[in-house]
Specification:
The structure is a single chain. The chain has 2 domains: about 150 residues, Jelly Rolls; about 50 residues. It is about 50% helix and about 20% strand. It is built from 9 helices and 8 strands. The strands form 2 sheets. Strands 1-8-3-6 form a 4-stranded antiparallel β-sheet. A 4-stranded antiparallel β-sheet has the order 2-7-4-5. The chain starts with a helix and ends with a helix.
């Protein structure tokens, strides 16, 4: 990724505007943080089906999704989707990013995507020069920890119907957007089972 960044310009204020808006809605960010974010983020475009990060490598970048959808997945006996992220959210192989160790996960664009990337070292510098930014970061990490707990709960439910119903409650915005094969993998059920569950729910709603 460092080789790619050498050929990329920093974000313009216009390109970073939505990132700054989202961050500011979580916790007011200072002019220092605002300027630093513009000068140390990079606009990146990733085509559908392309990997953003490969397992076994250290995830040195965190990304803000301006447009599109990214999934994390592991390659075991089969491809297993571990999370799905869309617009106005941050994405990284977080275990690898925080600890700077090789990751187990891959990251792949499942739609043509536009991102803003920031290096781990730059984020650490921002924490130092603007201590208040730590508050904003903490609130975002808390949200993602809560989301991880929801994913863990779904994975432990035994019935496919319960998994999908919980998915609809928590990820309704993804239900008609993301390919079913990725939703099935995310829920830990096969595609045929998911199709039957969806048909059953549709039929029930018509009664």
């Amino acid at each position: 990724m460092d080789k790619i960044l050498k050929n990329l310009p920093h974000s313009t204020p216009e390109e970073a505007a939505i990132l700054l808006y989202v961050f500011n809605s979580v916790y007011p960010i200072s002019d220092v943080a605002r300027t630093f974010l513009i000068q140390n983020t990079y606009p990146i475009k990733v085509r559908k089906g392309k990997k953003l990060h490969k397992s076994g490598e250290i995830c040195d970048m965190i990304y803000f999704v301006k447009k599109g959808a990214i999934r994390g997945y592991v390659e075991d006996v089969k491809d297993i989707t571990t999370w799905i992220t869309v617009e106005n959210e941050l994405v990284a192989c977080i275990h690898s990013f925080v600890l700077q160790i090789p990751s187990y996960e891959n990251m792949e664009a499942i739609e043509d995507s536009e991102l803003l990337g920031m290096k781990h070292s730059d984020l650490q510098q921002l924490y130092t020069i603007d201590p208040d930014f730590n508050i904003m970061a903490r609130r975002i990490y808390e949200k993602y920890y809560a989301d991880a707990e929801v994913r863990a709960l779904m994975g432990r439910l035994s019935k496919a119907e319960l998994k999908y119903e919980y998915f609809l409650k928590s990820y309704q915005h993804l239900s008609t957007r993301i390919p079913l094969k990725f939703i099935a993998s995310f829920l830990g059920i096969n595609l045929e089972t998911l199709s039957r569950v969806r048909a059953k729910i549709r039929n029930h709603s018509k009664k």
